[in-house]
Specification:
The protein has 109 residues and is α+β, with helices and mostly antiparallel strands. It contains three helices and six strands, in the order αβααβββββ.
Amino acid sequence: MKRAFIALIAVGVILTAANVETVRLDKLDRATEVYIQRGLNDRDAQCYVYALKYIKKNAKPTEIYVTFDDPMESGVSFGVGESGEAYSCVNGRFESRDEGTRELIRKFP
């Protein structure tokens, strides 16, 4: 009985992880972008638009990855190719992430 329960939990974790989507920015079509924004609350949608402008200043769209539909996080996150830069928009907070630390860049009301 315990093995069956553990197996069900493992399957749930695998299925949950399978829902996470990561798309390179230059491959992001308009329909997917609208889908992302509709799935965000107002503050995170504002943050998303600002974050893209902010990140595009220093990186090409072919280097930027957008991660969404993460059941472990309510917002959206961004990664920049080989530089290792990582950003997120969660609860109206645009933050940079570096090895477990977060630095607030801008907060949206």
